[in-house]
Amino acid sequence: MHVFTSIKPMQEISLKLKAEGKTIGLVPTMGYLHEGHLSLAVRARQENDIVVMSNFVNPLQFGPKEDFATYPRDLDRDNKQAESVGVDYVFAPSGEEMYPEDYSTYVEVKGGATEKMCGRSRPGHFLGVTTVVLKLFLITQPNCAYFGQKDAQQAVVVRKMVEDLNLPMEIVTCPIVREKDGLALSSRNTYLSPEERAYALALPRALAAGRQLIQHGERNPGRVREEILRILESSPGIRVDYVEVVDGRTLDELPVLRGSVLLSAAVFVGKTRLIDNIDLEVAPCTAAC
Ligand code: PAF
Known about the structure:
The protein has 289 residues and is of the alpha/beta class.
């Protein structure tokens, strides 16, 4: 496995491999890898000749009061893990390499999917994501890029950018990887004290209760949302940021639950903000519901 910290050699080798007819799978990450990231690399390994993993804590997608400075980092450990799942190249640039002092170009998916949910709570976040992701795509030339379903809104926004800009590539989303007790893996889980870690379990529990309501025939999005909210608001140690029950492909509101549905929530546990979601295909309700 080779680690590049400069853009030029990473881009040169990517263009050369593409010209030779090799397929490239990109796994974009901010490092501090866990099994969720590794599952993306495993999928990329199965589907491509070459696997590139980027490891860059992107300052542009953090708000001024957010955790950019304290975001966990361990490049040596990350590189060992990346190598163990067959990554060929790691791209780990510095902030100055990606955004030199005179940097001034930004990529924005306007309206719709970027304005709600995390977009409302974290203004500018998705502008930072789409800007860095497009740069990563241009540097590493992927045929496919692999994103975790845990960041469901991010995947919808990136897919829209790829579609709108006619990028000749595919976005693949991979299922959320969870701890045995249901907590979705996240690099930010390391911030949680043992007590907060226990409180955080209300998040997957509330979303699972929402899914159960749908499985038992509920097709009113408002009622499913209320149930998730009720559980979260009655759980100790949890402050709700948002709960949404929306179309899983567009994040638009649904009058009735049908087709691709996303149950999504963000909460604060102490100072740590956690997100989680469940996506499901909902069949029209029959008399048996
Ligand atoms: O999902 C992440 O880790 C980041 O948002 C990404 C896609 C690597 C862009 O910085």
